[in-house]
Amino acid sequence: MEEKIKNDFEKIIENSKFSNKDIELKRDFLNKFIVSGFPNKKLENWKFSDLNQIIKKNIGDLSFYTNYSIPNKLNPSIYIDGLEHNKIVFINGRIEKIDFKYEEKDKIQISDQFELKKDTKVTNSLINLNNAFANKYFKIVIKKNYSIRKPLVIYHTTNNINSKNINLRLDFVLEKNSSLKIVDIFNDQSEKNFINVFYNFELNQDSILKNYKIDQIENNNIKYSFNNIVQQENSVSETFILSSGSNFIKNEINCDLIGKYSSAFINGIFSLKQKKHHEIKTNINHLIDNTKSYQLIKSVLENESKAVYQGKIFVDSKAQKTDGYQLSKAILLNETTEFNAKPELEIYADDVKCSHGSASGSLNDDAIFYLMSRGLNYTEAKKLLINGFLLEVVEKITDSQIKNLIKNMIGLKE
Amino acid sequence: MKKEIENLKEYKYGFTTDVENIRAPKGLNEDTIKFISEIKKEPKWMLEWRLKAFERLKKLKEPNWQKPKYPKIDYQDLYYYSAPKNASSKPKDIKDLDPKILETYKKLGIPLEEQKRLNGIAVDAVFDSVSVATTFKEKLNDVGVIFCSISEAIQKHPNLVKKYLGSVIPITDHYFATLNSAVFTDGSFVYIPEGVRCPMELSTYFRINASQTGQFERTLIIADKGSYVSYLEGCTAPMRDENQLHAANVELIALDDAEIKYSTVQNWYPGDEDGKGGIYNFVTKRGLCKGTNSKISWTQVETGSAITWKYPSCILKGDNSIGEFYSIAITNNHQKADTGTKMIHLGKNTKSKIISKGISAGLSDMTYRGLVDISSKANNSSNYTQCDSLLMGNKCGAHTVPYIKNKNSKSNVAHEATTSKISEDQLHYCQQRGLNSEEAVGLIVNGFCKEVLQQLPMEFAVEAQKLVGISLEGSVG
Amino acid sequence: MLKINNLNAKIKNKSILKDFKLEINPGEVHAIMGPNGSGKSTLSNILSGKKGYDVSGEILFENKNLFKLETEERAHEGIFLAFQYPLEIPGVNTNIFLKTSLNAIKKARGEKELDALEFLNLVKKKAKELKFEEEKLNRQLNVGFSGGEKKKNEILQMSILQPKLSILDETDSGLDIDALRIVADGVNSLRKKDNSFLIITHYQRLLDYIKPDYVHVLINGKIMKSGGPELAIELEKKGYESYN
């Protein structure tokens, strides 16, 4: 792999306009990635999902080269109907469109004139890979006191590519008292690629981020998405993950609560109907007093599917009055399904309220019997129960428009 | 109670006994292993087994995934065998035992010669590397129960030992387990014949006395079909500046319809307030529910040791078998503990229950680490896990790391965990009723631990309750 | 309407009902009284089709063999069980559940299904009659309901689904006197010449409000004595011991 990856890297450098400093840093990141390679199950974080094996088995040899100088053709039919929204469209890792037409122009600042930084606080081999190969990345700043009027939908599209590694990155800054709503949606028209997404969020005082991540369309790609969120005083982040469509996807959220009264909410659904393997990994770091986090993850698994939830709450010794909660529940519908969980607490302060719970098992027979005694047949009873089971998570979505959108997507009835 | 606590403020088991020792030369090598085997008059197969483990050990590395880190142990600078001179061949009668050793056990609250009249527990007393006395042998003999030192069992019951030793913890296991297989010195052996309910509690009392000595004992308990046994284990060591290694292996085997209840009150010397000295307690305990309807229940109260690192586990192989783990772990000052359990569900209708209570105070660090693994064949199995942590102060840590794997849609796994502190209101209420703050803490902590304390046999429960209070001395500001 | 002949029921080889016989005609109210462990709940479970029992004998409901019908088919035929411990089902909205259930039954009977508006009107009316707070119907099924509310919810479901045979399994347990009266009123208002009731209870209390036509004493899986309403009063005085 080493020679191939180096060749692909040089080709990208040739065809793009990076500054010399950037190129130097990128080469650094590349070398770091080459040393570690794709993560495997020997790493605690990847214990339940051996990405190295998964890529080997499903893709084989990857190509890391993307020609960022040639634009791709936009296909407006992928846009969400009946929802007024701003857009960013990625096609095969290249930004083809940025459109904030519903917003005041001077309230949103978009720029790709940023240089890479050497020391990112959070790092792993896939972020190194991302930094080495991603195109010039955009930083989007929401100005002070401005609340975005319409949601920003970020389309991740792939087409006509195969066995490729796609890396993309976006940085967001929410200035004081601003708010941003993102719908992050995958739309894959191609197979067997490894897509590596890296978002950075900087939430300043009193800002609000709502981030709805949707992987619903059936596809054969392998994905890793890493969101890094840093939160100042009294800021709120809400993340919702619908994990359903890809062959493999791991959503990793790292959230540092560094300002008092900041809070983070993560809600997720695994709805896996076929032989797929999905994971959600969260790290919530309570680093100052009076912060709050809440996580709820529910899974419905069928037909040889496997879901993994690794959720960690870390409480620093300074973080008194922390309120941390985490719950995962899974329904296994077939004998061939598997649910693995590692709900972890690491606590160094005594005046905190932290708890986690995890439950997995079959559908509740008594509930099925109760519903059947009222005249529903087995299939109807099962459907109603699963519906109710998942609805609890969707109901946590605070934006009613997006809530309905997602309900329709997964066919949930109220 | 108050006076008692005052008396017990110091680690009261920290004295040393001045007896003349026979020691193996320092160092970990084939000669040391041959020395141990020879002095124990072991048959050839036993020596070969040890050497095989030693060969394996050379290829293994010390694990390093655990949270508590410790300075590198120089295995060549340790004694692997130390025994009181005149106890190297075990006296036939307790009367013939070195009076100094008798006195030691009396001071520890385990008076060997009066034991019978005290509470009807049969005791195997292990002093450094050897078993010095086993009480109640005849009475147990009457019902066919074999309770003796493992050294004696190797000579007198070789078939049982050959069949089961290493059957749950193979010599190819992890570093410390394999080290034990190579150099184990003594420990207890129990065999409960078919259909027998052991008429009394069996107990081993481990005492480390000599300095610079590792203690590597090996316990093997076999409960034949339809039998029952309750086994208790207690441990203490003198106060020394150095860290001492204790790497024991305990294997339990329960056949059809048999039940083993294994309780531990671990109170090895934890080191002083500044974290100097103390025992490294790296123990491998594993039970195999081999037969259908068998049951293994671990209860542990872990208050001592500088570092505790153990996961008493159950392999639920037989259909309908049950595994239980009840644990209280308390760390104070600079103590560190990384403990928990593994419940491996292989058979159908297997059930397991984990109740873990961790309390950290001072500058200590506590980790619960556990695995619940339901295999695809373990239909209709279930696990319930509850792990609660209590922190006292913000210089200590509590870490909960459960691994949950469910591969069976007909089985249910439920896990709950909480972290809390002792509330001001609770303290105030108790103090208003006349308790001082330390007594109040003791009371509240005992309440927090109640579910686990209840699992202990009566005599141990009282002792454990006192220990819980003492271990937290000085932790309330 | 209901004919039970020589019903034997075992669970894990333990015999619970032994040669049990009972016949209920249209319009009749029967009460089965018995101490704990006498087999009362087993009877209601078997009538509603709960799995896990080893059964022999015969149960005919309007001349149909009940053993050949699934739980939901029995509900379609008009058997309703008011559960002793109504289940909490998180995430499932009570109204949605009731509507789905009612329409499933109507569909099976070849009747016209109700649309949302018709259903809502019906539920409103019934809830009012039973003094059941309408707001609760928008909550998750039985979640956070008090014991009394859960029992009332069962009776509400009964009055909406209009069964032919209603089995009330210890419906009176956990009810205060006001709730008991409301539940009894609900049951009495459903008493018609075609509708029958089987009331399973430990105490005579409920029978003060719902007057049975027949009372049976169930002990160790067998009916030891049958009689009129006076038998319940006699039982209250003498206790179950005298029938052993």
Explain this structure to me?
The complex is a heterotrimer of chains A (414), B (477) and C (244). By secondary structure, chain A is α/β, with parallel strands linked by helices. Chain A has 2 domains: 258 residues, no CATH class; 49 residues, no CATH class. In chain A, the strands form 2 sheets. In chain A, strands 2-1-5-7-9-11-13-15-17-19 form a 10-stranded mixed sheet, covered by helices on one side. In chain A, strand 1 and strand 2 form a beta hairpin. In chain A, helix 1 runs antiparallel to helix 2 and helix 2 runs antiparallel to helix 4. The radius of gyration of chain A is 21 Å and the shape is globular. In chain B, strands 5, 6, 8, 10, 11, 13, 15, 16, 18, 20 and 22 form an 11-stranded mixed sheet that branches. In chain B, strand 3 and strand 4 form a beta hairpin. Chain B is globular. Chain C is an alpha/beta fold. Chain C has one domain: Rossmann fold (3-Layer(aba) Sandwich), CATH 3.40.50. In chain C, the strands form 3 sheets. A 6-stranded mixed sheet of chain C has the order 6-9-10-3-11-12, with helices on both faces. Chains A and B meet through strand 18 and strand 19 of A and strand 21, strand 22 and strand 23 of B. Strand 18 of chain A pairs antiparallel with strand 22 of chain B.
Q: Specify the overall morphology of chain C.
A: globular
- Secondary-structure-based class of chain A equals alpha/beta
Largest sheet of chain A: 10 strands, mixed
Low-confidence segments of chain C, given as residue ranges, are: none
Helix content of chain C: 25-40%
Quick check: average pLDDT of chain A? 92
State the oligomer: heterotrimer
The share of residues in helices of chain A is: 10-25%
Distance between the termini of chain A: 50 Å
Determine the most extensive contact between two protein chains: A-B, 36 and 35 residues
Terminal residue distance of chain C: 30 Å
| Beta-strand share of residues of chain C | 25-35%
Largest sheet of chain C: 6 strands, mixed
